[in-house]
Amino acid sequence: MLQEFLRNTKYSKTKAELAYEMICEAKKANIPFTHIVMDGFYGSNLWLLTLVEMEILINVADVVSDTRVYCEPPVYQIPTRKGTRERIPVHTQVVNTPFIRVDSIAKRIDKWR
């Protein structure tokens, strides 16, 4: 449905959309490659990173130092309501593991550069 909408609608594609199309075209043309390397602009695009990961492609992306990461797959859940007077929770939260900032991981690794 989305692809049909995009075909029938004239709009300018984003750089991330163009990059993903290039990756898909390279795979379709059987161009041999083993890795995808992205700079910080593409590395901060969660949409693109998710699609590349779903394609089971190895990728290396430059990310901003305050990016939050999880060491194990996060489990999302809407929290339970604690009382009768507060609003009903509607936003999901990660319940099984805390996030870690990328820069704190880099500080803990010896000779990472």
TrEMBL record:
Chain ranges of the Transposase IS701-like DDE domain: 13-95
InterPro entries found in the cross-reference section: IS701-like_DDE_dom (IPR038721)
One Pfam family cited in the UniProt record for this chain: DDE_5
Lineage: superkingdom: Archaea
Protein's name according to its UniProt entry: Transposase IS701-like DDE domain-containing protein
Species, as recorded: Methanosalsum natronophilum
